[in-house]
């Protein structure tokens, strides 16, 4: 009851593939991925049924001319403003920090007569030392490893 075994060899596999795909004869072979006969067979018939349901996939296009205009367009979005325009806009939004230079690296000399400011800095330094002692380095989230 077993069907006959097909002959082995690469020729038989190629022939089986061509029979499944409906290709008759070797002179009709083409390297094209979008064969005309397959595309035309799928494009026959109406797109929508009488009830309004789509019968086959389709793409809505604006117009043929817009597609033709986009053929030689770049594949990425082109810039919409120059760098100078962008920097002016960022400056208007406040996204650019101004200043700097050699004077920005110098720290102001502390006023020795202002005891309140000195006490506040001392308390801040003590609180930071206590925090560092109570939270040693590497004691953060250990991912439930204990």
TrEMBL record:
<dbReference type="InterPro" id="IPR007304">
    <property type="entry name" value="TAP46-like"/>
</dbReference>
<feature type="region of interest" description="Disordered">
    <location>
        <begin position="1"/>
        <end position="55"/>
    </location>
</feature>
<feature type="compositionally biased region" description="Basic and acidic residues">
    <location>
        <begin position="29"/>
        <end position="38"/>
    </location>
</feature>
<dbReference type="GO" id="GO:0035303">
    <property type="term" value="P:regulation of dephosphorylation"/>
</dbReference>
<dbReference type="GO" id="GO:0051721">
    <property type="term" value="F:protein phosphatase 2A binding"/>
</dbReference>
<dbReference type="GO" id="GO:0005829">
    <property type="term" value="C:cytosol"/>
</dbReference>
<dbReference type="Pfam" id="PF04177">
    <property type="entry name" value="TAP42"/>
</dbReference>
<dbReference type="GO" id="GO:0009966">
    <property type="term" value="P:regulation of signal transduction"/>
</dbReference>
<feature type="region of interest" description="Disordered">
    <location>
        <begin position="97"/>
        <end position="121"/>
    </location>
</feature>
<protein>
    <submittedName>
        <fullName>Type 2A phosphatase-associated protein</fullName>
    </submittedName>
</protein>
